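Troubleshooting entry. The earlier prediction with zinc ion gave an output that would not parse, so I re-checked the input for stray whitespace and re-submitted. Clean input:
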Amino acid sequence: MPKVIVIDAGHGGKFPGAPVQTARNSGIKGEEELTLAIAIEMFHILKERGVIPVLTRWHNNELAQYLPVDLKRRAKIADIAGASVFISLHANSSQRPIDTAEGYEIYHYPDSLEGQRYAEAIMDAYGKAFPAMKSRGIEAEEFEVLRETASPAVLFEMFFANNPEENKWAAEHTKEIAAAICEGLIEVLAPASPMDINSIMAVNMKMAKGKFI
Ligand SMILES: [Zn+2]
């Protein structure tokens, strides 16, 4: 049975995310717009890789009228879909509307070993794909979407939305960013999948019965 990966494009609608000066610079895009573009690219990549991708949103919309409910719904989608892993996509921001803060960092729920494995694999794949980018490391955090999901979950801050250079770079590299994240996810998903363990067991049973000899 194919595995499900739930991809959450952070923010959207009335909860727009990192404040960036989109109006003054035509090349600069909002966090909610970039996370969605990357989520959709991930959808196309994953369905070719034998995984069932599920997105929490396909448009620039909120999932509820109140933020706590909006966040709970994102986690709920992962549970209803039977996610093997949940990834929430975000772009970082510092205090200033325009800044030179840079790089990527990832969060998993404290004491979630599986979440940590996904976090490490994604950071690894991302670092290999974009060696010039600054890694800010892996952190354990009790974020709502990480706490509320039954499956292993990570929240990935892929770049800084309020750094004009990284913002423009991300807008031009949504496919490459998506591909790197998918590499990391698939690397952990494949060997950890119960289906694969069953397949391996089935082959081993046949071997034990001498069917391959
Ligand atoms: Zn965000």
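This one parsed fine. The beta strands are 4-9, 52-55, 85-92, 104-108, 135-140, 153-160.
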